[in-house]
Amino acid sequence: MSVPTTRRMGTSGSELADAAALLLAGELVALPTETVYGLAARADDPGAIARLFVAKGRPSDNPLIVHVASMAALARVTAHVTPLAALLLERFAPGPLTVVLDAHPDLPRAVTAGLDSVAVRIPDHPVMLEVLRRCDVPLAAPSANRSGRPSPTNAMHVLDDLGGRIAAVVDDGPTRIGLESTVVDARGTAPIVLRAGAVSHEDLLRACSGVVPEGSWGDAATVRASEPRAPGTRHRHYAPDIPVHLARPGEGRTTAVAVLGTLRAAGTERPRIGLVTTGPGTAGRSEAPLDTTGPEADIEHLGAPIDASALARDLFAFLRRAEERGLDALVIEGVEEVDIGRAVMDRLRRAAEASGGSAS
Ligand code: AMP
Ligand code: MG
Asked: Which residue has the least CA distance to atom 3 on ligand 1?
C-alpha cells in the first residue's frame, strides 16, 4: 500500500480524534506507547491487518500484539482470562506486560498468524489509551518499524522506516522505556516468559511469590529456552546494517581500538567506529576524553547512558544513528543482567549475533 504523504500529528484532542477516525476507516497510524512506537490497525478488520503486514514487511507467521484500554475490553479478544493472567494484569496493567491467552473465536486469525492464542496488553500511555477509547475497538500494534529494523523510539524513526507507507504518526516525543513489552504465556498456572522486556524477571517473581509454586517455572533462561513459542523471536530482529560488538563495562575503548585494528588489517580504508560506554563513572566520566590524535582518532563517542534504564531508552536510537553516520562498526558496553538489564542484554546479544559482531 502506498500513502503519498504520512501525516505527522500532534496530541491535541482534535488530532487524536483524526487519528481514531483514520484507524476506524481501516488506515494505519503509528502511535506512541510507553515502550516503543506501535503501528496500529483495527484488530477486527482483516483488510487493515493485511495492510499492516505489508507496510512493515512483516512475515505473516509472526503474530501481532493486540492493545486494549481496560480489563473489561480483554473479553473482546480473548476466550477467557486465566487466574494467572488476572493476577499479572492486576499487578502490571496498564504497563509493559503482554499476556498470551486463548484467542476469542471471532478474532481474525490474521492477527494471531493462525494461532488460537492471542497476545494482548493494556498500554500505559495517555495518547495510546485515548485513541483506544475513541476507537472503541481493539488495536493490533506491533512496533512501528520495517521488519528487521530496530524498534522506533521517536516519530522520526517511524517516518524513516514507514514514511509514505502509513496514513499518520502521532508525535509525542521519545518513548519513556525504549524497549518492547515482556511477553508472558499466561494460559497455564505458571508464567512462561516468551520475550524479555520492560517488566523484569525480578518483577514477575515478586508478583507471583506465594501464589505460583516456587520452582514451577524457569529462571530467566526460560526466555531463550522457550523461544520457539514466541514466533517473532525466531525472525531476524534488532539487526542494524553494521556489526555491533558487545563489550564489558569499562572495556569499550579497548574493544573499539581492537575492532579498528581488525578493520584496517582487513583493508577497510579509514574505518570509523561508534562507541557507547556504560557503567559506574559513565556519567561525567572522570577518565580522559578520547585521544583524537592517537589510536582512538576514528572512534566517535555516541553516548554514555548512566544505567541500564538509560541504555534501554537510547539503545535503538544508537543503533540507528550508527547506521546513519555510515560508521563501520558499533561497540557498546553492556550492563549488569538484573532487572531491565536482562532485556537490554538480550537485545544487545541479538544485535551482535544478527549483525555478525562479537559478544564478550
Ligand atoms: P512486536 O509486536 O513486533 O513487538 O512483537 C510481538 C511479539 O509477541 C513477537 O515476538 C511475537 O512472536 C509475540 N507474540 C505475539 N502473539 C503471540 C502468540 N499468540 N503466542 C506467542 N507469542 C506471540
Ligand atoms: Mg517488533
From this structure: 142
Q: How far apart are CA 80 and CA 62, in angstroms?
A: 22
Alpha-carbon distance 353 to 83, whole Å? Answer: 37
The burial of 14, by beta-carbon neighbours within 10 Å (0-12 exposed, 13-18 middle, 19 or more buried), is given as exposed
Residue matched to cell numbers 497455564: 188
Annotate 104-118 with DSSP letters as a single string.
Answer: PTTS-TTTTTT-SEE
Q: Residue 312 has what pLDDT?
A: 97
Q: Which of 143, 183, 184 to mutate to test the pocket of ligand 1 (most atoms within 8 A of CB)?
A: 183
Name the residue of 31, 35, 62, 102 to mutate for ligand 1: max ligand atoms within 8 A of Cβ: 62
pTM of the full structure: 0.92
Does the structure show a pLDDT above 50 at 274? yes
100-131 tens-digit pLDDT = 999 999 999 999 999 999 999 999 999 999 99
> Across all residues in the chain, what is the average pLDDT?
90
Whether the CB-CB separation of 65 and 195 falls below 8 Å is answered with no
* CB of residue 183 inside a 6 A radius of ligand 1: yes
Whether the per-residue pLDDT at 348 is higher than 70: the answer is: yes
